[in-house]
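Hello again, I could really use a second opinion on something today. I've been staring at a protein lately and its backbone has me curious. You're getting the sequence in one-letter code plus the fold written as tokens. I'd be grateful if you could look everything over and explain what you see. No rush at all, and the record is pasted right below:
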Amino acid sequence: MHYIDAHVHVWTPDTDHYPLWEGFKKENMKPASFTPEELFRHCRPSGVERIVLIQMSFYRFNNSYMLDMMKLHGGPKGEEEGRGGVGE
């Protein structure tokens, strides 16, 4: 069976490149990270083939990390380009 996880957050402990929004601290990040690689280790064995990324609150309106990870891991892809799966 194939699944879609419709609400996924990813974040990195690299706050030098991806700073936290005013008022948030590294201590607020529990766990300290949940990178795409960590996500894939959870979702692939469970049959999750597609995910919907949701911006993490401590980045506020700075979507840089999420957009960079989408570029790095091949998403999003439109119908005309084919559908990208988890980590393709």
Observations:
- The first strand starts at residue 3 and ends at 8.
- The chain has two helices and two strands.
- The beta strands are 3-8, 48-53.
- The longest helix spans residues 64-72.
